[in-house]
Design brief:
heterodimer, A: 161 residues, mainly alpha, 8 helices, rod-shaped, B: mainly alpha, Rna Polymerase Sigma Factor, Chain: A, Arc Repressor Mutant, subunit A, 2 domains
Chain lengths: 161, 170
């Protein structure tokens, strides 16, 4: 028995025809059910339209879209869990306030120092180290800055005293 | 209220194929009618859209198969249904005028009824709907290899069962 012949023989067998009266009956019942559901169904709303549009849009690969949505949810959860806790946030804020207060104190201290010439640093100490590396010619022709004058004045006052 | 033209067209294009498939699965004209009625009721409530259904026939056959599975789950276990089907099933083939052909059809009918429904559905789609295994696997939601192996097993059983008669009438 040739397999192909056997399959061909089976294919030739015809199934019973569908009873002709079923067409009218089935379509009538379907029509009634369809009309009933249309009567019960809410009127088309923007939400329904959006749902239809989303269904059409997602249809070609609903699994892929679902996987993408799952990835986004996972990213959001991870992002959420990586945020600092309330205690850590409070600690950071307190540290920031402390740093600001320290900066303000340093500024005040510097201002006090500038106002009081007696407490100004000695010229040798005030000179930055790289000034020694300057060529002597340039040092000679350089105009003294007000702070230099102040330093010299302080030194001469101390010597006179 | 007139019937939606699309529903009529679907009936005219596919009802015979759906009837044959459902009858082959259920082996009962009453169950087949219930199944088709449920199908067209659903189609009336939610019409097919060309944008979403690429192969209309395959979609409808899949729908019929799913409804049949639902029908079985609702009624009783598969095994009991299978036993019932094998014991007393309605003929699915049209009567033939030739006595040899009629005998062969009766034997084929009985042989099909003895097959497990999973194999019978694959055989039906392959032989009488001339679907590819790929299309069958999509329609029945089974792996491609499963569809091919079910067809092979089923055809072997049919061949063994029908061989004497087939060779006699050839």
């Amino acid at each position: 028995m040739n397999p192909d012949e056997f399959e061909q023989r089976l294919r030739k067998e015809a199934f019973r025809p569908i009873p002709p009266e079923w067409r009218h009956e089935l379509l009538r019942e379907a029509r009634l059910d369809g009309a009933a559901s249309a009567g019960l169904a809410p009127s088309p709303s923007p939400c329904n339209g959006l749902g239809e549009w989303l269904r059409d849009w997602l249809w070609p690969a609903p699994a892929a879209w679902a996987a993408l949505a799952a990835c986004w949810v996972a990213v959001l959860i991870l992002n959420r869990s990586a945020l600092p806790s309330a205690v850590e946030m409070a600690e950071t804020r307190a540290n920031a306030r402390l740093a600001l207060a320290y900066q303000a104190a340093v500024r005040e201290f510097n201002a006090l120092q500038l106002d009081d010439p007696a407490s100004a640093p000695r010229p040798s100490a005030a000179l930055p180290p790289r000034r020694a590396a300057e060529p002597s010619q340039a040092r000679m022709h350089r105009q003294p800055t007000p702070s230099t004058y102040e330093c010299l004045e302080t030194v001469s006052t101390q010597q006179m005293a | 209220m007139p019937v939606a033209p699309d529903l009529e067209r679907i009936y005219d294009d596919h009802a015979q194929a759906l009837f044959a498939f459902a009858l082959d699965l259920t082996r009962s004209e009453a169950d087949t009618r219930d199944l088709l009625q449920e199908m067209f009721r659903r189609l009336a409530m939610r019409p097919l859209r060309e944008t979403t259904v690429r192969d209309e026939r395959a979609f409808l056959l899949r729908m019929a198969h799913n409804l049949w599975v639902d029908q079985i789950r609702r009624s009783t276990s598969r095994e009991r249904v299978r036993d019932t089907l094998a014991a007393a099933s309605e003929p699915v083939f049209a009567p033939a005028t030739n006595p040899d052909s009629e005998t062969f059809r009766r034997e084929l009918d009985a042989a099909l009824a003895e097959l497990p429904p999973e194999q019978r559905s694959v055989v039906h789609l392959k032989l009488w709907e001339e679907m590819t295994f790929e299309s069958i696997s999509r329609t029945l939601d089974i792996p491609l290899n499963t569809a091919a192996s079910r067809y092979r097993y089923a055809l072997d059983k049919l061949r063994v069962r029908l061989r004497p008669l087939y060779e006699e009438i050839q």
